Amino acid sequence: MSTPTQKEDGVDQRRITVSVNGESRSAEVEPRLLLAHLLRQGLGLTGTHIGCDTTNCGACTVLYDGEPIKSCTMLAVQADGHEVTTVEGLGTPSELDPVQEGFKEEHGLQCGFCTPGMMLAAKALITRNDEPSEEDVRWALSGNLCRCTGYQNIVKAVLWAADKERANGGGSAEGPSTAEHTDLTV
Amino acid sequence: MDEVKIGGLGASRKRAEDNRFIRGRGTYVDDVVMPGMLHMEILRSPLAHARIKSIDTSAAWAIPGVRLVLTGEMAAQRNLAWMPTLSYDTQAVLATDKVRFQGQEVACVIADDPYIARDGVEAIVVDYEPLTPIVNPKQAMAPDAPIIRDDKAGQTDNRSYRWDVGDKAGTDTVFAEADMVSKVSMHYPRSHPSPLEPCGSIADYDLGTGKLTLYCTSQAPHIVRSAVALIAELPEHLIRVISPDLGGGFGNKVPVYPGYVCSILGSILTGKPVKWVEDRSSNLISTGFGRDMYLDGEIAMRRDGKMLGVRMHVTTDQGAFFADAQPSKFKVGLLHSAFACYDVPVGHITADGAYTNKSPGGVAYRCSFRVTEAMYFQERMVQAAADDLGMDQAEFRRVNLLPDDAFPARTPFGFLVDSGQYGKCLKVGLDAIGYQDFLVEQAEARKRGRLLGIGISTMTEPLGAGNSREYDILGIKMFDSAELRVHPSGKAILRTGARSQGQGHETTWAQIVAHELGLPADDVVVEEGDTDTAPYGMGTYASRSTPVAGAAVSMVSRKIRAKARKLAAHLLEVSEEDVEWELGRFYVRGAQDRGVSIQECAAAAYSNMPDGMEPGLEGNAYYDPPNLTWPFACYIAMVEVDPETGVWDVLRFVAVDDCGVRINPMIVEGQIMGGLTEAYAMASMQFQTYDAEGNMVGSNFMDYLLPSTWETPGFELHEVVTPCPHHPIGAKGVGECATVGGPAAFVNAVIDAVGHTGVRNIDMPVLPDRVWEALRTGHDYSGAPPVKGD
């Protein structure tokens, strides 16, 4: 559990530790800080985007213990002790995740703003269901809005990635699992 | 050399941009962090129309971490409370006397972090004296309406402009003598482009150098630089505007917004960088919307179906400030491109603009300067006319579309259309969807109570503003530009005055260079958006990039080729006249094996140039287009309406687009599918309206609906290729065609399905309750917002 502390100006602070892309990260945060802001401003992982203020768009989607969640609708303190995967944790420095490859191959992105959230929602689907139908893909991504593509190529991209994963025998390269500790105050 | 293999013209080249975006390594405005940066939040008016009696900011100042609270009064001290708009009106930056729309900017709080800034906004107390709001332009134009813009000297009513075009006398004569006149009235509702990334800026005014660096979400960073110089009275060489990666624009990011100006003022006053990133609700309630236009339209016809003339009266709802981003000579954009694809001898259009208590805008959301309205009204009028004649809607179009030998063709409103094959385009669409078979199926289904409908939209639109005789913004002619530098190793950097927001310029411009010079596209890096480095250009909107900046890329490449030819002659030790070009290589006429590559010429430009030749291999081109480009399309929707609920489903959608030569077919198709999705959204679910108190309905994603994967239908794409005769590579613009032409296809299909009840029009969005009501009553459904006192 997070431990309450106080900043000198009296604002309540909690110390939290979150595993982000396989790295253990610790931070002092206000309880009201949204997870999306911890990732973006606190940890500099700016691939996670914010496209709305009512939890509709899914641009902030990350994996939370493997499940897709909208990080604009979770407090950073709620992630204490959990595992978070962001777009920066997809693939490895030398190898793209099949989902990333699929989006490029099938022209599943234009401005790129929805892309990180969209790919993580797709990743969660493929992990759960290695042979999704077009309908499965459309349903799994229905919490992620895109303004550019009209979705048709995104669906193709996810099916491409599922095919590639199956051809690989399932299970793509995991992100680095080093146990570095980083202290910061947000 | 195989042009497609090196990523030249016609290659469906994978995008250069994707490599960073799929890794989360794009750099959007909110990703930029500067040392000492502060954060700004804006306090917005909760009321649509009210006098400001007082603003108490003391509690906000008292919050630890708050560095500055800006009010209109403070802005006025710097002559920044008001700013000019791109339509030669003025717009309040921070309200001083009154608020004139809900969501208007009233004050700003600048603090150490955005959470504190928002606490500060909550702590400001404003005392308002409410005034009667007006949200319907017809009410605004009534003689006794209170004057919204009482800040403007000499403004005695709520009219923002009056404009007309065409031959009034000739049109009136035709209408007096026609066999039949078909009339229809419609409202194109207010919608919002809502790019997934909202607007934002970071202003960094360096007190040491006097230089302002402004990161901002701009589709036209050079225009922003010139506008900021004008508004903030800063010298243009000491303003650097950087428009980094943009998370979509869709016309929302052309204007200069009060938030940008406030961040600049905030940085000047604090001496620190100030970041402002609006939230979604702020984006929807205060930034540039699209449409909001009323039409009374008429077509005069012969009984055999030949159109003789058109007459249109439109009223635009401008909101509280006339701030459309459009060429200065055209008050209602290029609305007069209506009926450009048809053989109509004469026409007349009148247009009135009205101020209302609503947010400013009008030109946005893939509208090509009001062409969305022009083509929607045109295609709805055409369907109504066909129905009035009792004629098949496809046949009515076929007999009235301009024939292939008509080009270049003069339209009834004075445009010159460059090229077209409209009959072929329509036929490809009808064949693809199986039109005749569908009509049989539809008739049989109706006997069993099933409501099937088919809707067609055929259109052409003017893209690529535009030639210097007619087109300017703030007096600056609407050219565009490219600068190309070839390095000694034959790799190159290209910069243009356009600004991509996802359209793939970094990929496609390199393809034009590959086509012109034979340099592999992968060897050309493309940059846009930094006014210190990119050549001056007018930016990206109205699908003008390929017609104008794309042409400039061609022209600068040809300049480089001309110099490379001299270098080749030197290297080959022959005279220039004896040098022949094939893609990527010069050779000696009559001795094809004696040649040098473009890369060898590049090396020679730095290491072995002939005596008297300036070293280096680079140049620039500013392109003043001779005409607009006129892509065209045929869109056909097939729908089924549920008579019990009014819900309609898209059974099939066929799109046939002709944008001339396709630089990158993959990217063209992506543009079309995105545009069709916007068209479907507008037709089926999307609008912003206002209640009688001036409250916006549609100011967040809970009720301003964007289709997801689940609602969006599949699209079947086809093409016809009719090159643009005046463009260096025969390419036309295309980015907006589907949004311009698509909505009428959907609405025409629903009207076709329910027309047996006598319904002639249901205003967009064609919501199930509207369809149900129309089916029940047989009456048209108007989507106009309420008149106060109704």
From TrEMBL, chain A:
Q: Does the keyword Metal-binding apply?
A: yes
Keyword tags: 2Fe-2S, Iron, Iron-sulfur, Metal-binding, Oxidoreductase
Q: What is the E.C. number?
A: 1.2.7.4
Q: Domain of life, per the record?
A: Bacteria
Q: What class of enzyme is it?
A: oxidoreductase
GO MF term (any one)? anaerobic carbon-monoxide dehydrogenase activity
For the region Disordered, what residue ranges are annotated?
166-186
Keyword Lyase: yes or no?
Answer: no
Q: Which PROSITE patterns match?
A: 2FE2S_FER_2 (PS51085)
The 2Fe-2S ferredoxin-type domain, residue ranges? 14-90
Task: Read off the PANTHER family from this record.
Answer: OXIDOREDUCTASE WITH IRON-SULFUR SUBUNIT (PTHR44379:SF5)
| Protein name as catalogued | Carbon-monoxide dehydrogenase small subunit
